[in-house]
Inverse folding.
């Protein structure tokens, strides 16, 4: 059986070879030449893909916009005084974020109809010296009946503030007071509708009740829930204690040296001088917090415009091209190179002072750790910022 299969296989192979030979002989020949042998087409190697162009997109710093809406009636004197002492401390905490956020702060002071004013509004600003100056004008007075015009304060904070439209921004309102809103005015201001509008604009309304008024607690919880915020209850005075440290005096001294590196010029000279005097006159603990903020933020020596040191670094101003009358007295008699050298020396001095501030501020922060009450106004604000800024990827 196996021999038979083998014979059949041989016959098949032989037949196949014969057919191939016949086909080759049947191919046409040209002038007796052997048939052409077809060569495979030339293989062209593929062109390597062009690598994508690398575009360096500048990193956008996250931003935190905060509006403090503060009840400034007579019962709020302790909180107002404490806020004046702690505004630089809160700003300094925010500047610790990683990545470091840009900060703008706005203010709304509110009372009630029949008082000296119903609201006083100050828009968001990155000039913390100006914010501190405005906050210092707040005085606790007025009041009488328990409710205040809370809804008007919320309307100003939501509708009048120049909130950032950028994506990497945390928008917060801190509503701070000890009395519920009037709901009997029928003047178009409705805290519920305003809270819902804030929610639609991605503005968190964080409410801080001072004291123990039950109706305020209920409404403050309602507002914070409607506007994706947090509710906190603190002591009537705000619970903010001024903690003296062994580092305050040195930081206050460095604060004075830092502001003296600012060079006011042109129309800003008076404003820079005023801010410098105010910064140097601050109590030691406040001056220490201020120095710590500017050290961490890298924001120079003063808030706002008009500092020639910063403006020359940013390319906004050239002292060599300015009329002598726009410069401070020590620079007027200098030539172009001398003017630039004068500004450069102030910049180098500022960098040295800032480095010293940061070193001492770390020691001061370590000394103060755990000494502040977790229920104090500033501690509540800091914990809320820490939690809500995490949505931007900012870590504390």
């Amino acid at each position: 059986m196996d021999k038979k299969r083998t014979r059949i296989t041989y016959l098949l192979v032989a037949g196949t070879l014969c057919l191939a030979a016949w086909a080759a002989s049947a191919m046409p020949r040209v002038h007796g030449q052997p048939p052409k042998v077809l060569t495979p087409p030339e293989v062209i190697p593929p062109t390597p893909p062009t690598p994508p162009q690398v575009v360096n997109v500048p990193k956008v710093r996250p931003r935190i916009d905060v509006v403090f809406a503060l009840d400034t009636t007579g019962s709020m004197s302790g909180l107002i005084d404490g806020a004046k002492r702690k505004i630089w401390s809160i700003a300094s905490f925010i500047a610790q974020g990683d990545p470091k956020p840009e900060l703008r702060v706005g203010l709304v002071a509110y009372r009630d109809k029949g008082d000296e004013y119903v609201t006083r509004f100050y828009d968001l600003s990155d000039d913390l010296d100006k914010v501190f100056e405005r906050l210092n004008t707040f005085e606790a007075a007025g009041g009488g009946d328990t409710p205040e015009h809370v809804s008007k304060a919320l309307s100003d904070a939501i509708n009048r503030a120049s909130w950032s439209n950028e994506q990497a921004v945390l928008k917060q309102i801190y509503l701070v007071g000890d009395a519920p809103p009037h709901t009997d005015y029928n003047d178009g201001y409705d805290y519920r509708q305003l809270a819902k509008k804030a929610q639609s604009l991605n503005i968190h309304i964080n409410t801080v009740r001072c004291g123990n008024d039950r109706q305020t607690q209920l409404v403050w919880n309602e507002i914070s829930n409607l506007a994706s915020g947090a509710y906190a209850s603190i002591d009537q005075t705000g619970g903010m204690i001024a903690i003296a440290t062994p580092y305050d005096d040195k930081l206050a001294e460095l604060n004075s040296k830092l502001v003296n590196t600012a060079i006011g010029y042109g129309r800003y000279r008076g404003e820079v001088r005023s801010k410098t005097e105010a910064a140097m006159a601050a109590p030691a603990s406040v001056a220490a917090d201020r120095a710590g903020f500017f050290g961490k933020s890298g924001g120079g020596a003063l808030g706002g415009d008009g500092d020639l040191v910063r403006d020359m670094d940013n390319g906004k101003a050239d002292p060599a091209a300015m009329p002598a009358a726009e410069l401070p007295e020590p620079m007027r008699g200098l030539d172009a190179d001398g003017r630039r050298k004068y500004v450069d020396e102030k910049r180098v001095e500022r960098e040295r002072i800032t480095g010293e501030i940061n070193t001492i501020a770390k020691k001061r922060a370590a000394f103060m750790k755990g000494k502040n009450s977790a229920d104090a106004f500033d501690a509540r604000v800091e914990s809320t910022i820490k939690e809500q800024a995490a949505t931007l990827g900012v870590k504390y």
About this structure: Residues 336-368 form the longest helix (33 residues). Strands lie at 63-71, 102-110, 119-125, 169-177, 203-210, 231-234. The chain is about 45% helix and 10% strand.
